[in-house]
Amino acid sequence: MTTTMTTTEPTTTDPRPWRGVLVATALPLNDDLSVNFDRYAEHCSWLVENGCDGVVPNGSLGEYQVLTPEERARVVETAVAAIGGERVMPGVAAYGSAESRRWAEQARDAGCGSVMLLPPNAYRADRRSVLAHYAEVAKAGVPIVAYNNPIDTKVDLVPELLAELHAEGCIQAVKEFSGDVRRAYQLAEIAPELDLLIGADDVLLELALAGAKGWVAGYPNALPRSSVELYRAAVGGDLATAKKLYEQLHPLLRWDSKVEFVQAIKLSMDLVGRHGGACRPPRVPLLPEQEAVVRAATERAVAAGLV
């Protein structure tokens, strides 16, 4: 499949830089598991050159939990230097609200246009704790995209709570990873100005049709052009194109919602000629049967011209 992709020049006046396809970037590691910053810079540039609108460094896919503070800061600075700050939305999750605020301030000072923030995730936080957490980080003065991942955090940012956070001015959008596509319609009713972002690759079509304004994406790390074509077709109402691409890509997209999503996406990157590489512990390599499934699905995507 041959796709002509036009890359839009970044703008410093767009008040909603989280819209479009923002790739939650995998982090290339050397054989000794040190970060290869040169390769990371090249990867960010390559994604934008292939039609993606920006990157999300220091998300779970970027293995932020196992980076040193120095590495984590340099990852953000590397992305900004490669593609410009308006295209960069770092994850600023941390155990404490003060630490998350400091990471938001670091992103702000690096020139980033927005940040992505999980709720408190060291314990099962209640509503008051969630509100206080987002209010504290909002003091950094950079727009916040909430990240709802109740599967991993055990804290569910339900539509009513998201609407309250938005009404208080704490968040401007939400990356929705619950998998419950019904929430899109409730959010549109009670918080119509809150931007919904697709948070899991394997519900892309459903949430795009429900009015999503962006996609914080995983598999474009390996297949950016076909993934962007899928997103553009879905939000543009070209269902014939979108459904065909969705069916072709879904055997890979569904890995984004599995525990081993980092390993799977990095393997696909390796198979298409990018540098995925290993993960830092405690992540371990895929089991042989898992690797075989990812390998076969990636090879089918390559054979179908989706790379």
Automatic annotation (TrEMBL):
Pfam families: DHDPS. Gene3D superfamilies: Aldolase class I. Keywords: Lyase. Signal peptide: none annotated. The keyword Lyase applies. The keyword Transit peptide does not apply. SMART domains: DHDPS. It comes from the Bacteria. InterPro entries: Aldolase_TIM, DapA-like. Belongs to the DapA family. This is Dihydrodipicolinate synthase family protein. It comes from Streptomyces pseudovenezuelae.
